[in-house]
Amino acid sequence: MRVYGLKCGNCLDIIWSRARHDYILCTCRNIGTDGGQDVGATTRTTTALGATWKYVTLELHGVQKKDMYDDWNFSLNKLGRIKAGTVDLRQQVIDIDEN
Ligand SMILES: [Zn+2]
Question: Residue 16 Cα, ligand 1 centroid: separation in angstroms?
Answer without folding.
Answer: 13
